[in-house]
Amino acid sequence: MPATPALRPPGFSRRTLLGASAAGLALIVTGCTSPPDQPEAVTTKQADRLSAQLGVQEALVAAYAAAAAADPALKAGVTELAAEADEQLKRLRAAAPGATPSAAASTGAAPAGAGAKAWLRQQVAAAATSHATACVDQSGARAALLGSIAAGLRGQDARLA
Amino acid sequence: MADDNSGSGGLNRKTEDDALQKALAAAHAAIWGYGVVGAALGPTRRAPAAAADAAHRDVRDRVSALLDQRHVEPAGALGGYTLPFPVLSAVDAAALAVVLEDGVAAAWVRVLDQAAERSTRELAVGVLSAAEVRAVSWRTAAGKTPVTSALPGLPPA
Fold this sequence. Notes:
Helix content of chain B: 55-70%
Low-confidence stretches of chain A: 1-39
Oligomer: heterodimer
Helix content of chain A: 55-70%
Number of strands of chain A: 0
Structural class of chain B: mainly alpha
Radius of gyration of chain B: 16 Å
Low-confidence stretches of chain B: none
Radius of gyration of chain A: 18 Å
CATH topology of chain B: Ferritin
CATH architecture of the largest domain in chain A: Up-down Bundle
Number of helices of chain B: 4
Mean pLDDT of chain A: 77
CATH architecture of chain B: Up-down Bundle
Distance between the termini of chain B: 33 Å
Largest sheet of chain A: none
Strand content of chain B: under 5%
Order of helices and strands of chain B: HHHH
Number of domains of chain B: 1
CATH class of the largest domain in chain A: Mainly Alpha
Strand content of chain A: under 5%
CATH topology of the largest domain in chain A: Ferritin
Largest sheet of chain B: none
Shape of chain A: elongated
């Protein structure tokens, strides 16, 4: 069994994943990927798209509340997922200060009872697709954030399955 | 050719290729790690590890081909890796798989952060999502909570 270079958490080789997470991703936290003398510009189209994704995420947070209200038995099982959706919304708001959702997408009413879970999964999957689609038209930290949120929602969808 | 994307700041083919190399290195490490995971799970429970291994091999091949097209020498696998902890049981194996997938997710978030090409971001968001879906399954098997992650691959704010 080979055992020389490092394979350690949170990734494996320090040459690979720690390098990735420490160097580049620290920049994501600050929302800036470009050198100081080269600030990352945001096109109007990109800003508008990010605002639209705020609306998508707000609708998803509302969907979690609606599903929990429609099916009390579901509430305990989705509390943690709802909190994650809210955390995602906060990160989106931080990435788009001053932005207002262009049109808060309405998710409609959750069906009462057992149908609420299936309805919620549809909302989660739709939001994931929307963020993933928006991600490819963004760049830098905004692309990374939207991609991460999309992936997180794919994981939620799997959890709800 | 890079996107005609005036919002991409200092991102270019070089930043993208560097990030792809790190993602490729992560794929190599994951492939190695899943060998350990599969061995610890045993033949009757090995299927999810085999599927994950195949997925990482596919990503490795796609990224290697992409870099080859760009006349960039793809990063090779290291001669060996050190496990982050002993893998002595199925639970340990699942925990290692979580480490592998979380590491891959971090590498692909970096690709998203550094990519200049739209097609690369499409690849990245797909790979990242698949890694998180697998991670959810492995966290469940490892008894880790929460089993989901709000922001896979991103460091805490």
